[in-house]
Every structure is written in structure tokens, then in C-alpha cells.
Amino acid sequence: MRHQARKRFGQNFLQDQQLISEIISYINPQENDPIIEIGPGLGALTNPLLERVSQLTVVEIDRDLVARLRERQTPKLTIVEADALQVDWQALAGDRRLRLVGNLPYNIGTPLLLKLAQQASVLTDVHAMLQKEVVDRITAKSGTRSFGRLSVMIQACFEVRTLLEVPPEAFDPPPKVQSAVIRMVPHEKQPSATELSSLEAIARLAFANKRKTLRNNLKKQIGDEQFSQLGIDPGARAETLGLPQFFALAKLLNKGNTSPSK
Ligand code: SAM
Q1: How many domains does the structure of the chain reveal?
Q2: Same domain, yes or no, for 112 and 178?
Q3: Most CB atoms within 10 A, among 53, 68, 116, 191?
Q4: Could you read off the pLDDT tens digit of each residue along the chain, which spans 262 residues?
């Protein structure tokens, strides 16, 4: 029976075989790679992955799709019926480092990637299809309009690269927006959990109002003197700062140095 695509689960199934092959060659799966696919759906990526690897784990939330996958009775395939946002990647990884792949449901893309940033050290890489607009924000360079909290948080943990842009016609049903495939490779040295949470706090505040200056967005946390000690112009906007400056501000916040100097 034909599966009726469910909007609430962001179901846009890949149907362009040429594109699927391109994605698979970017992933370049090796037989013993511990690959986890998020949202296998009807198997557009699952099938070619199963041809290449000895074991594949998939995480799917839709119980009808899970039932279909179970019907296959493929010993190579481990099916986890779960919400990918609730998965403990560290526990799933054990002593391995995981390779995550997925044509991600658009409604969970951003929160999922932010969660992955907290567990980046258990990952080898991530290949994900997302809305192009989200990929543009993730990969944005400091000084550009798209540079924001998401760029800071993801680039703090991963090397990021856009691999492909994908038009709506590649999917059934077609989404309303353009998509893109991104590769994210964790940096060798990861920020600690404390550093990451201070970074998140500072990025949230600094970008709270993108048109305001740093001085205005951070007036309760950081004073002019502290900005000048870090060589940061308080009259600038957050999007002009580079990652090292965000880390420096986060460190200041973390020290509990929350009262601006006069
Ligand atoms: N991989 C398939 C493809 O490329 O055709 C399906 C991609 S479709 C965009 C997203 C898939 O993720 C669907 O199978 C959907 O049911 C599943 N999904 C949606 N929300 C999820 C969640 N929170 N956790 C796990 N899977 C989810």
C-alpha cells in the first residue's frame, strides 16, 4: 500500500536517483562504518547504504514506516523506533564514533544539530539534507547577514561545508523551499560542556536584536572597559565578530563577571 506522506513528520521523500547516488558518494560509506540514518522513511538512502555496509542502524519516529522497515527482515538493519531529538548518541555510540546521515525532517533540523553539537565528540561526521536557508546560516561567515547564533554554535564544534543544493522536484511531495546537503566534521578539540553553555548564552544575548550594537544587547553583562580589554568595539554588531571573540566573551561570562564595569 502506498504510504501517505505525513506533514507533521516532515515527510518529503527523495525520488531523484541521480541525486541519491551523489549523496551516497559524498558519504562514501565503508563496509564497517557505524552509520546511523535519521529518518529512513521509504528507504531512499537506506537501500543504497545497505548495499555498502555490513550493519546499518536507522532511527524513525513514524510507526507505519517502522512497520514497513520491519517487514524487510534484513539482519543487517537495526531499527530504532524513536524521536531523534530524544536519542542519546553517546549511549548509541558505545566505544565507536558514529557517522550520522539523513534527509532530515525540516521541523527538527535546527534543534537536532544543536543537540549534536553537545555530543560532537562521539561523531566522525554528519551528512544532512536541510532547508538551504538553514544550511546557509550554519555555514555563514562572520560579517555576513546570515551569520548568527546557529553559525556560532555549530562552527564552534564542527567544520562545515555545503555539498549540494537540491531543488524541490527532487522530492515527493516537493517541499516549498530549496534544500541543501551539508557535511559537518567535528573539530579535534571540542569545547567543554561549560564553554558551550556560556557560548550559547552569549550568542543568544548578542544576537537577541540583530540591529542593536553589542553594547546594547549585552549591557547587563559586559561593560565598555571589558569590551576594550578584549579588543572588541562595543559599537559593533554581533554578526561582525569572529568565533574567537565569541569564545572570549563566553569566557568572561563564565567567570561570573556579569556586572559591567563603570
Ligand atoms: N530518508 C527518506 C528520504 O530521503 O526519502 C525520508 C526523509 S523525510 C524528509 C524525513 C524522515 O524522518 C521521515 O521518514 C520521517 O518520518 C522521519 N522523522 C520525522 N521526525 C522524526 C523524528 N523526530 N525522529 C526520527 N525520525 C523522524
Answers
A1: 2
A2: yes
A3: 116
A4: 788 999 899 999 999 999 999 999 999 999 999 999 999 999 999 999 999 999 999 999 999 999 999 998 899 999 999 999 999 999 999 999 999 999 999 899 999 999 999 999 999 999 999 999 999 999 999 999 999 999 999 999 999 999 999 999 999 999 999 999 999 999 999 999 999 999 999 999 999 998 999 999 999 999 999 999 999 999 999 999 999 999 999 999 887 654 444 3
Tell me how far apart the alpha carbons of residues 118 and 120 are, in angstroms, rounded to a whole number: 6
Quick check: CB of 39 below 6 Å from ligand 1?
yes
Domain that holds residue 249: 193-254
Q: Is 83 in the pocket of ligand 1 (CB under 6 A)?
A: yes
Query: Does residue 127 lie in a domain region?
Result: yes
Q: Which of 134, 160, 186 is the last residue of a domain?
A: 186
Q: Which atom of ligand 1 is nearest to the CA of 108?
A: 23
Atom 20 of ligand 1, nearest CA residue: 9
Ligand 1, atom nearest to 59 Cα: 25
Looking at the fold, whether 198 and 179 belong to one and the same domain comes out as no
Do 132 and 214 lie in a common domain? Answer: no
94 and 158 in a single domain? The answer is yes
Domain shared by 146 and 211, yes or no? no
User: Does residue 5's CB lie within 6 angstroms of at least one atom of ligand 1?
Assistant: no
Residue nearest to atom 6 of ligand 1 (CA): 41
Ligand 1 atom with the shortest distance to the CA of 15? 5
Residue nearest ligand 1's atom 14 by CA: 41
